[in-house]
Amino acid sequence: xxxxxDLSGKTAxxxxxxxxxxxxxxxxxxxxxxxxxxxxxxxDACDAAAAEINELVGRKAAVAIAANIxxxxxxxxxxxxxxxxxxxxxxxxxxxxxNPYFGPMAGISDExxxxxxxxxxxxxxxLISMCAPQMRQRKDGAVIIVSSIGGxxxxxxxxxxxxxxAADMQLARNLAAEFGPDNVRVNTIAPGLIQTDFAKALxxxxxxxxxxxxTSPLRxxxxxDEIAGMxxxxxxxxxxxxxxxxxxxxxxxxxx
Length: 256
Description:
CATH class: Alpha Beta
Radius of gyration: 17 Å
Strand order of the largest sheet: 3-2-1-4-5-6-7
Low-confidence stretches: none
Strand content: 5-15%
Distance between the termini: 39 Å
Number of helices: 8
CATH architecture: 3-Layer(aba) Sandwich
CATH superfamily: NAD(P)-binding Rossmann-like Domain
Number of strands: 7
Largest sheet: 7 strands, parallel
Number of domains: 1
């Protein structure tokens, strides 16, 4: 029987993939046979992550193409260079995000709020719109947006971020409806608290960490690789009938 998780011959763009969840996703997609484009704002960080992935998988699976997701021209260059390097794009993983503010909504500046909405929603829309036409033409493709359980609940300290993540879930539903007839699937993954540099403000706060782990059924926070496995599933034949959904991976946090 064919391996349902085999991604041989596929090419994936993964934004925000020089570290954390994004790097774990890029690594595991490459491990399952895909060519991957590592992308974040800094070229040297992308180069280092791509080299690490290539060493781990034992082949030149990853290339590094830096891009600032807030700049439309930079995203178009990312898509153009990926097509030039690998010929096509089969998997688009929108993982990069921003959260420049920690505190109540009353204190957020317009600039901070706008940056969150731009990077976490509009930039995803841009990149997907650039990748989707060729997928739809070939009648095959997978789009994955890394959202958050914050999009399912309120927060007194990361409200704007949570608003953006709820919007990502709706973006996936809308695009699933649009792209479905062309066999292009669009889903979101909603992680709980994961031990990454991005989430340090939460897990390095003893009070927040204690509250989270005490109320989570697994009594711990997650690791980047525990999100990467779902991305592999959604990108592969194993996830071929899944679209328009949000997959929560949070150690059971939202179940209790």
